[in-house]
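Progress note, sequence design subtask.
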C-alpha cells in the first residue's frame, strides 16, 4: 500500500482508510481485531471511527485492539463529534461543552492520550462557528488532538471556517470527510476544487454507496437474501435513495470493466476514486475478512484512460446552474 500526504500537512497516511463503523455492527470484537490486524499487515495505518458509532462500541473495540498492540505511534487514528449521545439538551452539537466532554469520552474508549485527526461530524447551525473552532484549537494546544477536520460541510461553510481560523491564528481544518463515489459526484462541483486549492486532505465516506457498487445488485434482479438494501436502520441503502437508470448504468459499466480486467466491481469503484484529483483515501467499510480482502485488491494498479472515461460517462450528472454556465464557457476558453 502506498502513502499520501494528508493535504498540505506533513502527515502521511495510507491510500486506504479502514472505517470502523462496522465494529459492533456486523463485526464482533474478534472479527474487528482480525480486520484491523489484516489492514495493518497490508500496510495500512489509517483508522476512522466516531463517538456515536454503535453507541461507542466502535471506539471501545478499536481501543482494545490498540492496547493489545502496545505501541500506536505509527498509526493514525481519527474520530468525530457532533451527533447526540444522550437525551439531554447539551448532549449534541459542536458547543465547547459537548466537544470537551466527548473528546475525553473518546480518549477513554480508545485508551489513548491523543487523537491524530479529530473531526466535526456535521455542520452545526446552532452553535457559533468561533466557539467550535476555538474549542478545537484548545484541544490541539493541550495535546489531546494533533489535527482537526470536518465532515458533511458545504463549500461555503468550509471556507468560512478556514478564513476565521486564519484570521484568529487558530489551527485550521486540514481534512474533509465528504460522501463521494461514482453514485455521488456532486462533491466535485465545489468541495474538491476548494480542498485542492486550500491544501485540505479528502477522505471519502461510503465509497461503495452502501454496497450498491459492489456488483451484488443487478439490473432486473431482486436483491440477494440478507443484503442491506431496504433495512430500516441503513438509511443510505434504501432503494429510493439509490435506484435509478443512472445507478444501473454505473453498475453495468463496473461489471463490464471488472470482467475485462479480472477485478471485482468494488475494486473498480475504489480504484476510480483513488484516481480522482485531491482524494487522499476512501474509507473502507468491511464487515468480514473476505470483504476487506476484496477492498485491499483495489490498490497496486490503475484503470486506463478509456476505462475511466467509460465510468465517468456512466456516472455523469447534468450540472445545474450556475455550474453548467461556468463549465460551458470555461471549456470554450480553454479550447481557444
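Output:
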Amino acid at each position: 500500500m502506498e502513502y499520501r500526504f494528508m493535504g498540505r500537512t506533513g502527515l502521511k497516511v495510507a491510500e486506504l482508510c479502514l472505517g470502523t463503523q462496522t465494529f459492533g455492527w456486523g463485526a464482533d470484537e474478534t472479527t474487528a481485531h482480525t480486520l484491523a490486524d489484516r489492514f495493518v499487515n497490508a500496510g495500512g495505518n489509517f483508522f476512522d471511527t466516531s463517538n456515536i458509532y454503535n453507541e461507542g462500541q466502535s471506539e471501545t473495540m478499536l481501543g482494545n485492539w490498540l492496547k493489545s498492540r502496545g505501541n500506536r505511534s505509527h498509526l493514525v487514528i481519527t474520530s468525530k463529534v457532533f451527533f447526540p449521545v444522550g437525551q439531554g439538551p447539551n448532549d449534541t452539537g459542536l458547543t465547547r461543552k459537548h466537544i470537551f466532554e466527548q473528546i475525553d469520552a473518546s480518549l477513554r474508549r480508545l485508551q489513548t492520550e491523543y487523537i491524530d485527526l479529530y473531526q466535526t461530524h456535521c455542520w452545526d447551525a446552532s452553535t457559533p462557528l468561533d466557539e467550535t473552532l476555538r474549542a478545537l484549537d484548545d484541544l490541539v494546544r493541550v495535546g489531546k488532538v494533533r489535527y482537526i477536520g470536518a465532515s458533511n460541510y458545504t463549500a461555503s461553510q468550509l471556507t468560512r471556517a478556514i478564513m476565521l481560523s486564519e484570521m484568529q491564528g487558530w489551527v485550521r481544518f486540514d481534512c474533509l470527510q465528504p460522501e463521494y463515489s461514482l453514485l455521488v459526484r456532486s462533491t466535485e462541483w465545489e468541495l474538491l476544487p476548494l480542498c485542492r486549492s486550500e491544501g485540505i486532505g479528502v477522505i471519502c465516506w461510503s465509497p461503495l454507496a452502501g454496497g450498491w457498487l459492489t456488483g451484488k445488485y443487478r439490473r432486473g434482479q431482486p436483491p440477494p437474501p440478507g443484503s442491506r438494501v431496504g433495512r430500516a436502520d441503513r438509511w443510505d441503502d434504501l432503494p429510493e435513495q439509490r435506484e435509478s437508470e443512472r445507478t444501473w448504468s454505473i453498475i453495468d459499466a463496473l461489471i463490464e470493466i471488472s470482467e475485462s480486467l479480472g477485478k471485482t466491481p468494488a475494486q473498480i469503484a475504489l480504484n476510480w476514486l483513488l484516481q480522482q484529483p485531491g482524494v487522499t483515501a476512501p474509507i473502507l467499510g468491511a464487515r468480514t475478512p473476505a470483504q476487506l480482502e476484496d477492498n485491499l485488491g483495489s490498490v497496486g494498479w490503475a484503470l486506463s484512460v478509456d476505462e475511466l472515461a467509460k465510468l465517468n460517462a456512466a456516472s455523469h450528472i447534468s450540472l445545474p446552474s450556475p455550474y453548467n454556465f461556468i463549465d460551458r464557457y470555461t471549456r470554450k476558453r480553454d479550447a481557444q
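The radius of gyration is 20 Å. Work on this subtask will continue into the next period as scheduled.
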